Structures are given as C-alpha cells and as structure tokens.
Amino acid sequence: MKYINADDKKPKVVFVGSSRVQAGFNTALLKRQLPEFNFYNMGLSGSSVLYNYELTEKLIPVLPAKSTVFFELSDLTILPPNHYLYFSNYTDLYNLMKKQVDLSFKFNDIEKVFFSFVNVRSQFKASVYTEQVILKEIGFVKKAAAYSDKPKDFISINDINQPQVPLTELQQKMYTMLIDLMERAKKQDIKIVYYIALNMPKTTERKQILPIFSALPASNKWVYSADFLTKITNGKYLYDPGHLNENGASVNSMEVAREIMRINR
Questions:
Q1: For the sheet containing 12-17, what is the strand order?
Q2: Which residues of 50-74 are buried (b: 16+ CB within 10 A; e: fewer)?
Q3: Fold of the domain spanning 2-263
Q4: DSSP H helices in the chain
Q5: Quick one: which of 6, 7, 10, 199 has the fewest CB in 10 Å?
C-alpha cells in the first residue's frame, strides 16, 4: 500500500468503490477544504461490494487512527476488476469468495471458469499491470462532458428512506460481512462509512443493495439529505447515466466534506 503510506501520519479519508467513486470524489478539492486530512480516491473501474470489502480489509492495518473509509455499496459480481490484481493475488480472491459468498453462486460451477480467467490474466500481469499503469488508474478521474439526455437513474429520498424489510439469505450474509468489517475497523479507531451510489442504472443493484443499506446502523452510514439530492439530480452534473462529470464531482465532494466534518465533531 505504498499509495497510502507515502505521506505523513495525518488521518486519512479513503474512498473505496467502482468507477462511480473514481468520477465522484475530487480529492484535490477536498484537501483544500479540509487540509487536516489526507484524501485518497481508490475507486476501481468494475469493482463491486466483495472487492471493496477485501481492499478495505487491506487498508485497515496501514491507516492511522481517526481515519475514515467511505465504502460504496454496490452489487455482487464474481470476477474482480482488472486493476485489482495490483492489490491482491488470485488465491486470496478465490478463498475470499468461497468463504464469504456461498450465496447464490455455485462455486463448483464457476471454479473452472474462474481459474481459466486467472491463468490468462496471469500471463499478462507482469507486463500490463505495472505500478505505473496502476497509479494512473488510481485517483480522481475528471470527466468534463455533460449528459444530454434526461437523467433517470438517480436515487431518490424515497429510496433512502424506504422501510426496513426482512433480508434475503444473500442480503443477510452481505450485511453480516459488512458489520464484521465495521467492528474490526473500530478496534483500530478507524471508521467505515457505508453509502450508496447516487446513480444506479441497474434495477438488480437497487433491489440487492437498498435493503442492506436500510438495515445498517445510522452511525456508519452517509445518508444524503433531501436538499442535496434535489440539487445533484440534474443532467448538467452527469457525464453518462452512471457517472458524475467534473461539476457533479465538485458538488458531491463539497457534500462529503460536510459529512466528514460532522463525523469528526
């Protein structure tokens, strides 16, 4: 984790998630607003909740006390994002999936497919996923264009405030995994803050994630305000249906700055 360790011992704020995180949090802007923290955007294109979980596990031992990890809740996928290879090896990933997610996947069925994928990717890892390439992948990705169509995939205040419902077996296991991670971080005086993406184009992701978010403790959630959602729900802040553009990232970053100040009062 040289990316995290190569600075002073100020408390750190790390954003973990998918390309929506990459495009959504301007760490330079946040640093100007809150110079008492160091900020890191560790969004990885194509990441999902399981890989966010394992990356956060690796972060906990290297973060100083009073640090915060903002953890994007996203749907469950089997295969890792390409650049995840820099942070973990395939055996770790496979064991993690087999241990934590005996959920709706049949691992006997996907084992051959998975290791076939692993073998092909391993041949290219040394030449393609160099440190230089990885460091270009990590960090805020500025997207300048504005989305021309009418936005339709923003979450709403009703999504956030939906009544709690019984979790499915899959959701309950994911919930237990997230609570365990939160408690382990707490022992190191590190706070995990779970949040949902502003844009969820996939109906399956909404159905899977929103009930889990509702069930998580309020002390470890970033819950968007109605005023913020009213402001950000605008096509001028989008690059495409799932990602904020540069202006949207600025609005989003200012909102999370307020949340960080609230957490650290």
A1: 38-43, 12-17, 68-73, 191-196
A2: bbbbbbbeebbeebeeebbbbbbbb
A3: Rossmann fold (3.40.50)
A4: 2-5, 19-24, 27-33, 49-59, 90-100, 107-128, 131-137, 157-160, 169-187, 203-215, 226-232, 246-263
A5: 6
| Neighbouring residues of 226: CB distance < 8 A, sequence distance ≥ 6 | 157
- Contact between 195 and 221 under an 8 Å Cβ cutoff? The reply is yes
pLDDT for the residue 116? 47
- Say what the pLDDT of residue 120 is: 45
| pLDDT tens digits, 128-180 | 455 555 555 578 888 888 887 777 888 999 999 888 899 998 899 889 999 99
Is 59 in contact with 40 (CB distance < 8 Å)?
no
Q: Where in the chain are the domains? A: 2-263
What is the chain's mean pLDDT, rounded? 83
> 221: helix, coil or strand?
strand
Q: Which two tokens stand for residue 205?
A: 């992701």
